[in-house]
Amino acid sequence: MTPKAKKTDLTTEQKIIHAARKLFTMKGYEATKTRDIAKEAGINLALLNYYFRSKEKLFEIIMQENVGQFMQVISDMVNNENTSINEKIELLVNNYIDMLTRLPDMPLFVMNHLKSTPQRTEMRERFMGSYFMKQIQQAMKKGEITTINPMNIMMNIVSLTIFPFIAKPMVQNNHSLSSEQFYNLMQERKKLIPKWIDAMLKSK
Amino acid sequence: MTPKAKKTDLTTEQKIIHAARKLFTMKGYEATKTRDIAKEAGINLALLNYYFRSKEKLFEIIMQENVGQFMQVISDMVNNENTSINEKIELLVNNYIDMLTRLPDMPLFVMNHLKSTPQRTEMRERFMGSYFMKQIQQAMKKGEITTINPMNIMMNIVSLTIFPFIAKPMVQNNHSLSSEQFYNLMQERKKLIPKWIDAMLKSK
DNA sequence: GTCTATAATTCGATAGAC
DNA sequence: GTCTATCGAATTATAGAC
């Protein structure tokens, strides 16, 4: 047996987490039934409560895991003191598009939760006090970029990167756009979004 | 009595629709209970089923109403033969921001539904065969705008306009950004988004 | 049309055997 | 740790009186 466990070698706890992650992110909290999680995990309903006391506790674990990953990409970007503005934007766009290609349900899942139960993410504070923010202000002062509310810069980068994954079912239905075409479109945007942001920052 | 009915003068059917619209868009299908709708409407639970046979039928009415409004803004824009490219963009951004200011829950509500039950919206076909599309292709041929996949243009306009409302709970928590500040930011974007799109279309 | 009462089902959670 | 069986609450929907 290799040290790397096969899928069937997962512990019961891991099997439940895997099943819960799949169903919660796919269908949301209310629409996901504990019976379905148990079935998907190949175990019994009672065992789910034995390991995780309640549906809500299990959900919180999955949600924090998702919120964490989601926020991490932004934190990594805005606090990096070794990259230029343009490099930061490229890094964030690349990381998000790669992540959301693997986990396309994540953004809607996270946004739904933040709406119903606002968290202390303090996105705005984190951004306003970040190294990225300082770089922007310096570039503005030097006249290298146009005068602009920094919130708009961050909002635009994230909008252009994430929204297409949220709107995917709208543009890509009935095979009008194949999965492969959508994938290619997103890969193409990795290079285009930084260029567009650059054009925006230099517009008068 | 004026011909315009007061809120308390609504028919029972209207009272139920109003309550259902509020709760469904706010909390989604599963989390909304028929009892709560009845309570919100000030009527009895049995009466809800008397008028609308089932929870699902009632939901479909509310959902189609929302999807319709959502799509209408795009249809109005891409099929208008009397406006320039820039005027079209300004119109769409203005209409969406005004609509979502009134109905901030709409985008998440609609996106959640389209994901779970893909509709025959054929957004891509409608766009690809539209008058707006023809204008873009002409402008590209004349070299007035840069060479770009038209899907990206539409995707960017909609992303920049709608995503901030979806991400609202993330940027605006714990009074870090007041409702008024958020409102002002969105109003400001009415003028900025068309400028940014313009810069994007002229970038090399 | 509107109500009260309740049927029928579903769901989260637990008891208790192994 | 894992299972079967079941409880108790919640929820959608309906029956039947007025």
How are the SSEs placed, and which strands pair?
The structure is a homodimer of 204-residue chains.
Chain A: H1 12-27, H2 34-41, H3 45-52, H4 55-78, H5 85-102, H6 106-116, H7 123-128, H8 131-141, H9 150-166, H10 168-171, H11 179-202
Helix pairs in contact in A: 1-2, 4-5, 4-6, 5-9, 5-11, 9-11
The structure holds a DNA duplex (18 and 18 nucleotides).
Question: How would you summarize what this structure contains?
Answer:
The structure is a homodimer of 204-residue chains. By secondary structure, chain A is mainly α.
Which terms would index this structure?
homodimer, 204 residues, mainly alpha, DNA-binding
What does the model show?
The structure is a homodimer of 204-residue chains. With 204 residues, chain A is mainly α. In chain A, 72% of the residues lie in helices and 0% in strands. Chain A is built from eleven helices and no strands. Chain A has helices at residues 12-27, 34-41, 45-52, 55-78, 85-102, 106-116, 123-128, 131-141, 150-166, 168-171, 179-202. The radius of gyration of chain A is 20 Å and the shape is elongated. The model of chain A has no long low-confidence stretch (mean pLDDT 94). Chains A and B meet through α6, α7, α9, α10 and α11 of A and α1, α6, α7, α9 and α10 of B. The structure holds a DNA duplex (18 and 18 nucleotides).
Q: Could you give the count of β-strands of chain A?
A: 0
Q: Cα distance, first to last residue of chain A?
A: 63 Å
Largest sheet of chain A: none
Helical run tally of chain A: 11
Mean pLDDT of chain A: 94
Overall SS class of chain A: mainly alpha
| Fraction of residues in H or I helices of chain A | over 70%
Largest interface: A-B, 53 and 53 residues
Q: Over the alpha carbons, how many angstroms does the gyration radius of chain A reach?
A: 20 Å
Strand content of chain A: under 5%
Indicate the overall shape of chain A: elongated
Oligomer: homodimer
Order of helices and strands of chain A: HHHHHHHHHHH
Low-confidence stretches of chain A: none
